[in-house]
Design goal:
Elements lengths: L2 H11 L3 H4 L9 H9 L8 E6 L4 H14 L4 E4 L11 E3 L2 E2 L2 H17 L6 H15 L4 E5 L16 E4 L7 H4 L3 H8 L9 E3 L4 H13 L4 E3 L4 E10 L3 E9 L2 E9 L6 H17 L6 H9 L1 H5 L6 E4 L3 E4 L5 H13 L5 E5 L8 H6 L5 E4 L10 H9 L5 E3 L3 H11 L5 E5 L2 H9 L1
Parallel strand pairs: 1-5, 1-6, 2-5, 6-7, 7-8, 13-17, 14-15, 14-17, 15-16
Antiparallel strand pairs: 2-3, 3-4, 9-10, 10-11, 12-13
Helix pairs in contact: 1-5, 3-6, 4-10, 4-11, 8-9
């Protein structure tokens, strides 16, 4: 097979949560364990950091990888989902896994395993692929992002140097639970015996879940928001727009005007989490300087290729895409929408069909002009149904047959001092970035 044929095999033959939803979700680790055994347990041959949480785990993973890369380490990075290229999921020092490695892996392991009745999901396959690649390339450390939940996620076969849980909020309620305590219990499943854990944000509803799980596993626990705080968060325009903030540690400024290519104000929550993680790695004799930290945070997109986080696509009219898609994520998006000067807001909106979106719709700005659309995946909500639900929340606009058509209409209608925003789901953003 060539690479396009291999992709077609993976997408068509292996159940994929991002496309079809819960039908692809496996409520155990049996297949992953079997695949890892088939591969010779590559996950045991490299050091790792495990990143879970509801929001921010992608940014946190990329920030940590970028800092470690800036410190001279050979860093594997496994994240999901991808936006424009499958190989975004698996990188070493920002370089995507070679196409031929993917082809060889599928031919050598996945097709025979499938024929031998090992019914792998797409995600289980990608986890095995990442672990195999990182082991074969002898990475110094790999940053591994949880796909969904934690306890039963396919990545949860590693024993990392450090576990990180960014935060807890409502998402995937049908699979993870309908209370923050239940969701936290699933996320806490990545806490391992004797492995330090960083919790990004302390919430009263979930705090004790993490404290008790850490005690049970004899793991030290740190709540990052009790150690580091971001102040003076703002955009600066030097040669290009950047995010700037001061980082305070217990009352003292420890990083004055730390800068990042990531422009979302919500990074003020992720960066303290990352700094706590670096503190723990230093205790394990990783050599990381303040200069490495500054460079890694500032050049995270350059170093890792991260896409879709408050990403500017055009200046006039200002056009931005962001993958925030659940209640907490949309709250952050709306906050920054409100803080961004503009005359009229044109909102290209597409969502998935397996979530209760009423809370999200309730948060969205009523004065915006909406362009309702459906991403080109089976899991996307029909645009007519989205428009009907939105109308119940006083959100008005028109229905379009595709994401690209919706964006085209927004561009035609928007004036130079207007603001076009694209969001609602990762897949809506992905189709815009592919254009």
């Amino acid at each position: 097979m060539n690479y396009p044929e291999t992709l077609d095999y993976m997408f068509s033959r292996l159940p994929m949560f991002q496309r079809i939803g819960s039908a692809a979700y496996k409520a155990n680790l049996d297949n992953t364990i079997a695949l890892c055994e088939l591969l010779g347990n590559p996950e045991k041959s490299f050091k790792s950091i495990h990143i879970g949480g509801t929001n921010g785990k992608g940014s946190t993973s990329h920030l940590l990888a970028s800092i470690l890369q800036s410190a001279g380490y050979k860093v594997g990075l496994y994240t999901s989902p991808h936006l424009t290229d499958f190989r975004e999921r698996i990188k070493i020092n920002g370089n995507k896994i070679p196409e031929q490695y993917v082809v060889n892996f599928v031919e050598q392991y996945i097709i025979p395993a499938t024929e031998d009745k090992l019914e792998l999901s797409f995600f289980e396959m990608t986890v095995g692929l990442a672990f195999s690649y990182f082991a074969s390339e002898n990475v110094d450390i790999a940053v591994i992002e949880v796909g969904l939940g934690g306890r039963l996620d396919s990545t949860n076969v590693i024993t990392p140097e450090l576990s990180v849980i960014t935060n807890i909020s409502f998402d995937h309620k049908s699979l993870l639970g309908d209370t923050l305590e239940l969701i936290a219990t699933e996320k806490a499943g990545i806490i391992k015996q004797g492995v330090p854990v960083i919790i990004g944000e302390r919430h009263e509803e979930s705090k004790n879940v993490f404290v008790n799980k850490a005690a049970e596993q004899n793991a030290s626990i740190v709540f990052a928001d009790g150690i580091y705080t971001a102040k003076n968060v703002k955009h600066k325009n030097n040669d290009k727009l950047i995010l700037s903030m001061d980082i305070v540690r217990r009352g003292n400024v420890v990083y004055n005007s730390i800068e990042s290519e990531l422009l979302g104000f919500y990074q003020q929550k992720n960066i303290p989490t990352v700094l706590c993680a670096i503190d723990e790695l230093k205790k394990k004799n990783y050599f990381i300087t303040d200069a490495n930290i500054r460079t890694g945070i500032k050049k995270v997109i350059t170093n890792t290729g991260l896409l879709g986080r408050w990403q500017i696509l055009n200046i006039q009219p200002l056009t931005i895409a962001d993958t925030g898609h659940n209640e907490a994520g949309i709250m952050e998006v709306v906050s920054q929408l409100n803080a961004t000067p503009h005359k009229h807001l044109h909102f290209v909106l597409g969502v998935v069909n397996d979530k209760d979106i009423s809370t999200i719709l309730d948060l969205l700005p009523k004065e915006a002009i909406y362009y309702f659309c459906k991403a080109n995946i089976p899991r996307a909500l029909n645009a007519d149904e989205l428009a009907a639900q939105a109308l119940l929340h006083n959100l008005n606009g028109k229905v379009y047959s595709s994401v690209k058509e919706a964006l085209s209409a927004a561009k035609q209608n928007a004036r130079t001092d207007d603001f076009i925003f694209i969001g609602g789901s990762t897949f809506t953003v992905a189709e815009v970035l592919e254009t």
